[in-house]
Amino acid sequence: MAAGTNYDDFAQAYADENESSLLNAFYERPAMLQMAGEVAGRRILDIGCGSAPLAHELMARGALVSGFDASQGMIDLARARLGEGADLQVANLGEQLPYGADSFDDAIASLVLHYLEDWTRALAEIRRVLKPGGRLLLSLNHPILYPWNHPGEDYFQRIQYTDELSFAGQPASLTYWHRPLHETMTAFLEAGFSIEKVWEPPYSKDAPEQIVPERIRERDAFLSFIFFELRSAK
Q1: Which of 192, 206, 200, 207 is nearest to 221 (CA)?
Q2: Residue 115 has pLDDT above 60, yes or no
Q3: Which of 105, 100, 88, 4 has the alpha carbon at shortest distance from 47?
């Protein structure tokens, strides 16, 4: 992960907010589950699994899920959720992954890749552990967010930036890499993936009204993340 982002510092606070926040519980996670579709019997790798809310949902749908995260604190929370027998490990995306080649039908990376400047090794390792024709489903910060939130900055430059946030009342710093959309898509293609879908989904209408900002309550969708369905070459 990028320097300046250490989820061990606020693992419990982030996990608590992730359970019910608009962005996670009623936007990113429902969209990812919709993309995943029918998963019963499929072996899925949850990349950057955090406290495992997505893995839990996938397992409830019959998937066989393994997960890893760079944060020991997050893995401890994930194990408390999924049980001691869950296949969970501390590992870093961008380094060699602790799984054999052709191990998974799908890999899911929710809001993970934008922490890395260089995706070359990360995408190569994901493709290695996927079966030929396997899917990589992922979400990223939408590339429009950086120039929107930092007026005057150049959309077309890859640049590192830090957001100062609060999770369940606890301050946290998250450091990301912005990159333009064409660079993102080129990286996927050069890594040997085909791009099956690019999606800017709506948020779930199940979201409680009190957590939806008034300015977007009459909209069907808003921009925060962008979603991709990729397929490994056979």
Answers
A1: 200
A2: yes
A3: 88
Among candidate residues 95, 83, 85, 82, the one with its CA nearest the CA of residue 129: 95
Question: Per-residue pLDDT for 1 more than 70?
Answer: no
CB within 8 Å of 59: residues ≥ 6 apart: 65, 82
Residue 54 has pLDDT above 70, yes or no: yes
Give the separation between CA 96 and CA 126, rounded to whole angstroms: 9
Say if residues 44 and 86 touch (Cβ distance below 8 Å).
no
Task: Report if pTM > 0.90.
Answer: yes
Which two tokens mark 147? Answer: 């120039």
Cα(230)–Cα(134) distance, integer angstroms: 8
CA distance linking residue 77 with residue 46, whole number of Å: 15
Q: What is the C-alpha separation between 34 and 225, in angstroms, rounded?
A: 15
